[in-house]
């Protein structure tokens, strides 16, 4: 993928290296999906080419990465294997987040651990909190200068290989963030078996009086920090949509109906045109958000939210069209089309879900008071 506005030579080199790696990731995606196996070798390879260091801002000891390059990289990874893109995005979000949120205390320690290749995972979402993952319901209990946490966190991607968790809980009724080193008080609840993004192994965790250490306490997220997860989620769905479109084009051009390729059917041409144009629009909206973020335009977060909504919707629509065009052969387990369909569904469920986004954006457009249901 060629960077656009404006290209940076070092970042373009990183994008090119990851593009080369992604081809191998794509070839192994079906295997990791079928076996629900975390692609640890791929994650190590990404670290070794300098992606983790690039994701960490310069002020935290990394080499820094523009939002433009970040978005390009996540899309490349998601087109090859969205489970890799998801695990890495959550890992980077937790690692960079802890380096930033604990900057006044243990931030340099977590930055060094992130640069050294240690694994991080986000453990923020609770079964009872829905999309409000930044507003936990669990209360931290004070104990001997620290706190303890009991409760559950769900959809923790890559937790089985994580050295550190980013966890939040209520301290004096305020959302507070901590780093947690998994120990015997943190256990995996054996109910995991997802429909899509199976190689993320996004587990449900149980905390049983887990110590939240005071020196690992962080402040609330603030302005000026690298918004990895909000910037990454639209890119994951866009990469899935790109892969789904490529798969359906291959099916349409190689599958024959009545002596001619299916691509000659007018209904296919019309449906593909609509899908491609909507996907291009989603990419454009996302790139606008990347530009706004790189240029500190205050509206960038809202643009990312809207881009996620559109990308989620388009990914599902393109994947469903792929099943229609692929016909029976696209419904077979060996076909990538069915995997794209399963993976596309996950984006709509990730916070903020499309329903929550639609509600918030609709209220803004209509001028409905946020406090009135």
TrEMBL record:
Q: Which residues form the Acyl-CoA oxidase/dehydrogenase middle domain?
A: 122-209
SUPFAM superfamilies for this protein: Acyl-CoA dehydrogenase C-terminal domain-like, Acyl-CoA dehydrogenase NM domain-like
Which CDD domains would you find in this protein's record?
A: ACAD
Boundaries of every Acyl-CoA dehydrogenase/oxidase N-terminal domain copy: 11-98
Report which superkingdom the organism of origin falls in: Bacteria
- Domain Acyl-CoA dehydrogenase/oxidase C-terminal residues, every copy: 235-365
Q: Which UniProt keywords apply?
A: FAD, Flavoprotein, Oxidoreductase
Q: What is this protein called?
A: Alkylation response protein AidB-like acyl-CoA dehydrogenase
- Provenance organism: Nocardia pseudobrasiliensis
